[in-house]
Amino acid sequence: xxxxxxxxxxxxxxxVAPRPVRVGISEAQGLMCAEEVVVENALPAFDQAxxxxxxxxxxxxxxxxxxxxxxxxxxxxxLPVVGEVRAGNRQPIxxxxxxxxxxxxxxxxxxxxxxxxxxxxxxxxxxxxxxxxSVRSGQYVRRTGDDVQPGDVAVRxxxxxxxxxxGLLAAVGQDKVSVHPRPRVAVISVGRELVDIDRDTGxxxxxxxxxxxxxxxxxxCGAEVHRVGIVGxxxxxxxxxxxxxxxxxxxxxxALGGSASEDISSALAELGDLVVERIAMxxxxxxxxxxxxxxxxxxxxxPSNPMSALVAFEVMVRPLIRIAxxxxxxxxxxxxxxxxxxxxxxxxxxxxxxxxxxxxxxTGEFMVAPIPDNGSHLLVSLAEANCLIVVDPxxxxxxxxxxxxxxxxxxxx
Length: 413
Fold this sequence. Notes:
It catalyses: adenylyl-molybdopterin + molybdate = Mo-molybdopterin + AMP + H(+). Helices cover 17% and strands 31% of the residues.
């Protein structure tokens, strides 16, 4: 029986990252940048007003607001307003000493002006303005290159492109960027007993639940997913071979008891070695994995049991997809929590117990309530779970109050 660590190491070593592609910046959101985006032009490209007000020379209003030495009254400085500059203005304006120009936020700063007086520090005059507050040189001004200078790196390689990065790329005039694309994942269900959900089940037939659940899981962790649907054992080679040409990961589900897994391995033998073996974990202790086709595409054979398939995907397939996406931390976040109830765990296997993780608002400590196991086939318990309690193989019993390791799942809502 292979340990979880050994099997996971084998799986992740086979990760295939798609080659970087160049896409429009709106399409890049959520993907990892594959280049150093170097700025060619300064941002902002010109000195501009950072607030609505009046562009002035700071020296002309240096005394405003001070107390007059003779009368003790506040000094008011009056300046003629010689023009107005709106955002987007393309005609340069030159400010003479002792003058002011009305400006909007984002407007180019007139020549010789070195500061902007906010409207609230003035009387708002149009032909002349009374100023009761001084302003420092550079105050309320965005200088050329304050954000980035030519040669600066706007977005670094390995950065996940989010809203801020999209905005920055747009601000520096970059309409496209090189990114690591989403790995393409094909999901195939194998079994004569399966029917799709748009049909009625007959005697001995069940709905193909696993492929829908696994396709959703792959999409949830960032993949581009193609759900192939249901194939019989006699058609599995043709279906897999077709997907190997268009996918970075292939995931199959099938009943793995009896000769079913041997039939699938035999059908795929000419494409590569798909090894079905026992893994020291529960659920999903029987799994298959191999690198198939000329490109050695990672190919999984998971149980048809939807609950087991989802846990196997979470433990084995998800990290591989996250690595293919270029993520530095492909594994789920782990925390330590106190178990709210006692439960048993099989010896010699790493147990993954569905749970509901809570946090004490007063102490900040985590507590986890295991969800009663009424059968590993029930999806209801996983739908209610927001975490998996990870129990080491040598632990056979967890008591209420014991510390346990918990892996966060995607939060609901």
